[in-house]
């Protein structure tokens, strides 16, 4: 996963620890990461399910190959 907010990450790490600015920047960073994670999960959920393997017969019971 690529963090598109690298400037935000740099600012969050450069603020004085314990300051209100640092807390706010960390909160914004966490929200940005959560949004990216939610977007990634939505993309994964949009993928079609894999078809089931054949359970009987001589075709498709030994090898499962997708093109």
UniProtKB/TrEMBL annotation:
Domain of life of the source: Bacteria
Source organism (scientific name): Kinneretia aquatilis
Entry-linked InterPro entries: YjfB_motility
Classification of source organism: Bacteria, Pseudomonadati, Pseudomonadota, Betaproteobacteria, Burkholderiales
Region (Disordered), start-end ranges: 1-20
Descriptive protein name: Putative motility protein
Pfam families noted in UniProt: YjfB_motility (PF14070)
């Amino acid at each position: 996963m690529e963090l598109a907010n690298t400037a935000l990450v740099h600012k969050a790490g450069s603020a004085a620890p314990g300051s209100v600015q640092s807390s706010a920047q960390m909160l914004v960073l966490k929200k940005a990461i959560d949004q990216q994670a939610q977007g990634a999960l939505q993309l994964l959920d949009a993928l079609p399910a894999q078809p089931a393997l054949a359970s009987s017969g001589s075709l498709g019971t030994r090898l499962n190959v997708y093109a």
